[in-house]
Design brief:
283 residues, alpha/beta, 6-stranded parallel sheet, 3-stranded antiparallel sheet, 9 strands, binds adenosine monophosphate
């Protein structure tokens, strides 16, 4: 595996692969890699000839300075894991490579309120920063495939929207959520939880599974009440639970063809998110 920190060097390397007709898969991450990330690397290896993983803790998508400061940074261990999983290139740039002074990188497109619900409501500015870094990374890497996780449902929905809106020449592939044995969705933030809470937090996925069975016979208020009280029994505070249309992210109703439940919650000063697809369109 090659580790590259400069945009120039990365582009030279990737151009030589492109000239040899190699297909490129790209997995953007913020590091502190776990099996969820690595499952995306495996998918990249299956799909393309060259797999590129970026590790960049993007300051522009953090609305909370403390969260940015506390975000785990484990580059050496990450590089070892990527090597083990046969990633071809680790791109680990500094902030000045991604945001060189004077370069316009903000993405200025209408977002049709996709950025204003759920995560957008509770993390103002998060999606503007996320789209900014994903667009910048896509411009740099120019991959054939972009691989992202369903774990961040609203994130890939916005990226998918941006790809279509700007007609970007890349195919988005979404990988399923990898979970710990208990059912807790894997996340780089889980290392900040106590061992006990890591077990208690299994109730998050349990309530999502309950929802999958019962959402049609309950209204929004009873669903919120149920999830809030289930989580609070385990010392977890619900921030939001929404059932939305998987494309528009507007509130779903019983007739919605593609319905997804998304939630965010807090425990031990750590913010966790998770989601479950309740209903998928047949085609
Ligand atoms: P992050 O490093 O948290 O920005 O995540 C990088 C990518 O990994 C994103 O596309 C996430 O959706 C994906 N990801 C994070 N957690 C998981 C998981 N548990 N299972 C699958 N993919 C994940």
């Amino acid at each position: 595996m090659k580790t590259i920190t400069s945009v120039d060097q990365l582009q030279k390397t990737l151009n030589s692969y492109r000239r040899a007709n190699k297909k490129i898969a790209f997995i953007p991450t913020m590091g502190a890699l776990h099996d969820g990330h690595l499952s995306l690397i495996n998918q990249g290896n299956k799909k393309a000839d060259i797999t590129v993983c970026s590790i960049f803790v993007n300051p522009t998508q953090f609305n909370n300075k403390e969260d940015l400061k506390k975000y785990p940074r484990t580059l050496k261990a990450d590089a070892d894991l990527l090597r083990k999983h046969k990633c071809d290139i680790l791109f680990a740039p500094g902030v000045n490579e991604i945001y060189p002074p004077g370069l316009k990188t903000k993405v200025d497109i209408p977002l049709n309120k996709l950025d204003q619900v759920m995560e957008g409501k509770f993390r103002p500015g998060h999606f503007a920063g996320m789209l900014q870094v994903v667009k910048r990374l896509l411009d740099i890497v120019q991959p054939d495939f972009l691989i992202m996780g369903q774990k961040d449902f609203q994130q890939f929905t916005l990226v998918d929207y941006m790809i279509h809106y700007l007609n970007l020449p890349v195919k988005l592939i979404v990988g399923k959520i990898l979970r710990e044995k208990t059912g807790l969705a894997m996340s780089s933030r889980n290392v900040r939880l106590s061992t006990m809470m890591r077990k208690e937090a299994a109730c998050i996925y349990k309530s999502l599974k309950w929802l999958k069975k019962h959402w049609q016979e309950n209204n929004r208020t009873t669903i919120r009440k149920y999830v809030k009280s289930t989580l609070s029994k385990h010392n977890i505070e619900l921030e939001y639970i929404e059932i939305v249309d998987g494309l528009s992210l507007s509130r779903a109703n019983k007739k919605t063809r593609y319905a997804v439940a998304c939630l965010a919650c807090w425990t031990e000063n750590v913010r966790l998110i998770d989601n479950i697809i309740l209903k998928r369109p047949k085609n």
